[in-house]
Specification:
de novo design (two linked rop proteins); binds iron/sulfur cluster; 3 domains; binds nicotinamide-adenine-dinucleotide; 11 strands; 20 helices; globular; binds flavin mononucleotide; single chain; 449 residues
Length: 449
């Protein structure tokens, strides 16, 4: 059994509401933290080893300690609830079922960072969740956890919920900030990082929903205890949203010592692959991380057991490894076509590119068109090399990592499944018959040659 720090109370009746949350130990972490100074809180978070759960895994305490504190300038905390990475739905679960856990984490974090106005920026498609959050905020306010002079500390804090309008790029922190300021969500060049110059040019910390929720157990059990859970630099617990060809899709809390094999096959988690099918591949960290073929999923290239944590999932670099990313775990069985799957992702990234950088704006469209041709049995063998060349020219040459996110899945698919790309070229008729479903893609006809 895995340790549960975030979802331990998820099944308690009425836990979405203040009464049940408080009766079950809720807001005790705020009481504890408010006896400390903001600097002590930051130190406690550093001790916990918590890494950002939005995908990049940057150490949270370190980021907080980078927050600039110029005299007379407000500081902001922004909760990134944009969660648009295909395969990722863990933040939705937290906000929908445990809203007070997030609010409690936000209050402690706002106090530590000196943010009197804290924002939750939530993806537009989560249309029913802002009401849940606003209700929880109102309850917290009525019970004295928000508003003026919280717990007599002299600290004032309000939390506002801002709805996004459905753009994936607005999850990138600087695009999010632009959008929050009322502008088009175009990413800014970093540095300066938001911790120096963020919302309305003020120092700003942007953290993921799960990161901020994890602040609560850190103060309930203490940073050192939190750091003892897990292994190496993968401390604490991690939420994984599992989907695809598995028997039990859902959101699971793991301590990061379990093996990938256990996660896929044990009944406590994914429960194996339906209909006795074989596992073909898996994207372990959301659509933007490299796909891993079955032979590299359970064992690293060195033959070691692959574990569900930051270090182990990335072991081998991009040649034979992948990334923990946002924790969106997508499983593909033997019936899935890798070329079609890669095309689906390419369409997504092309659609979501903000268009500021040529390699991303043009490259994602090229990749999509070449992949259409390959998948539809109209490609040439040289198209596979062309595809490789395009992705290589995108990676590292753009303002934000959306370009990399579009390039990496294509690179990994070619690297591990080149034979499948070649099959489409060498079997054009079969490829076309198999793909009658492409008619569903509204943009398919315009790109076929
Ligand atoms: N959760 C989702 O839905 C989703 C969607 C798409 C992508 N992602 C993830 O986003 C990740 C990329 O995010 P990113 O571009 O923000 O990564 P990044 O490495 O640039 O930054 C990560 C965090 O650390 C901070 N940071 C890094 N260096 C810093 C410094 N020197 N000083 C102060 N702060 C610093 C950044 O401000 C940011 O908050 C990818 O790994 C991907 O997994 C997540
Ligand atoms: C294209 C793109 C989309 C992103 N979308 C999200 C998102 O939806 N949610 C999120 O928390 N981080 C997202 N990120 C990462 C954020 O920029 C940032 O790293 C994160 O919010 C920091 O929080 P953390 O340190 O708690 O992980 C995205 C990054 C990129 C490049
Ligand atoms: S990489 Fe793509 S999404 Fe990011 S700024 Fe450039 S064009 Fe926009």
């Amino acid at each position: 059994m895995s340790t549960k720090l975030l979802l331990d109370k998820a099944n308690i009746e009425g836990i979405r509401f203040y009464k049940a949350y408080r009766e079950n130990g809720g807001y005790a972490a705020v009481e504890k933290a408010f006896k400390m100074t903001p600097t002590e809180i930051v130190e406690e978070v550093k001790k916990s080893g918590l890494r950002g759960r939005g995908g990049a895994g940057f150490p949270t305490g370190m980021k907080w300690s980078f927050l600039a504190k110029p005299e007379g300038v407000p500081r902001y905390l922004v909760c990134n609830a944009d969660e648009s990475e295909p395969g990722t739905f863990k933040d939705r679960y937290l906000m929908e079922f445990l809203p007070h856990l997030l609010i409690e984490g936000l209050i402690i974090s706002s106090f530590a960072l000196g943010s009197n106005r804290t924002y939750i920026y939530i993806r537009g498609e989560y249309a029913w969740i802002p009401d849940i959050l606003e209700h929880a905020i109102e309850e917290a306010k009525q019970n004295g956890w928000l508003g003026k002079n919280i717990l007599g500390t002299g600290f004032d804090c309000e939390i506002y919920v801002q709805r996004g309008a459905g753009a994936y790029i607005c999850g990138e922190e600087t695009a999010l900030i632009e959008s929050l300021e009322g502008k088009r969500g175009n990413p800014r060049i970093k540095p300066p990082f938001p911790a120096i110059k963020g919302l309305w040019e003020s120092p700003t910390v942007v953290n993921n929903v799960e990161t901020l929720a994890a602040i609560v157990p850190i103060f309930n059990i203490g940073g050192e205890e939190y750091a003892k859970i897990g292994v190496g630099k993968s401390t604490g617990t991690k939420l994984i949203s599992a989907c695809g060809n598995i028997n039990k899709p859902g959101v699971y809390e793991i301590d990061m010592t379990i093996s990938v094999e256990e996660f896929v096959y044990s009944d406590e988690y994914c429960g194996g692959i339906p209909n006795g099918k074989r596992l073909k591949a898996c994207i372990p960290g959301g659509s933007s991380v490299p796909i891993l073929p079955a032979n590299l999923l359970f064992k690293t290239a060195k033959g070691e057991t692959r574990l569900m944590n930051y270090e182990s999932l990335s072991d081998g670099g991009f040649a034979t490894g992948s990334m923990m990313g946002s924790g969106g775990f997508i499983v593909l069985d033997e019936d899935q076509c890798i070329v079609r799957h890669t095309l689906t992702l390419a369409r997504f990234y092309h659609h979501e590119s903000c268009g500021q950088c040529s390699p991303c704006r043009e490259g994602t469209g090229w990749m999509k068109r070449v992949l259409y041709n390959l998948e539809y049995g109209k490609g040439k063998l040289s198209d596979i090399d062309l595809l490789w060349d395009i992705q290589r020219r995108i990676e590292g040459n753009t303002i934000c990592p959306l370009g990399d996110a579009a390039a990496w899945p294509v690179a990994a698919a070619i690297r591990h499944f080149r034979d499948e790309f070649e099959w489409h070229v060498l079997n054009p008729e079969e490829s076309q018959v198999r793909n009658f479903g492409l008619a569903h893609y509204a943009d398919a006809r315009e790109v076929m040659v």
